[in-house]
Amino acid sequence: MREPFTQHGGAVDSILTDPERGVVISGDRRDRILVWELETGAIRFAIHLGTSVGAMLLERKTGHLIGTGGYSQSLAAAWDLETGEPLGSFDGHRLGVEGLALSPDGSRLATASRDGELRVWSATPVAGARHADLGLGCRASAISTDGHRAIACAADQRLRLLDLDTFEEVEVLELEPENYAERAALAGDRALLALWDGRLRAVDLSSGQTTAEVRITSERQPPWRSA
Description:
By secondary structure, the protein is mainly beta. It is built from no helices and 20 strands. It has a 4-stranded antiparallel beta sheet, with no helix packed on it. Strands 5-6-7-8 form a 4-stranded antiparallel beta sheet, with no helix packed on it. The protein has a 4-stranded antiparallel beta sheet with strand order 9-10-11-12, with no helix packed on it. Residues about 220-225 have low confidence and may be disordered.
């Protein structure tokens, strides 16, 4: 059994793996992203954000690592996975960024923030964004496989489906009171939601009906950040 990775100074909320590049990437609640060698467990490099890590994703074609964070301050940036060199930042949000999604072709990046905005950026190269103001803090976002639609999950228990070509709302669905989505994914006309109360739910976006649901944990605040 491999020795545990023990160099974080706070709770680890985010995990990524890239077997092809031989790395494990972890982010903690203090301010660090650590990139580990998968074979040896040695730290390749550390990224100090200066604020808690919110979400991470890896653009596997380019080897770009994208991370977000913050609560009262905003952070969203990209780094080279091989060297740790910064590639640019996604500036514009006013509060912490918790939701992060990349289109399948790697060209568009969606960020969802506590400031109530969903922003969609050019991911390569890092460039400016169009945005939709949703009014209340966004917790999760996802981009469809064709790259033309996005879903945003806000703190008002509403799911908003947006057309990324026009930035108009296509559909608005409501969850039950005191529940919201921590993570989301889009597959055709269905959304897969990781809910605050510990359930995974599949929703048909055309009808708003739940098509499947499974409880993962009986506790609230499930550890969805590694999903």
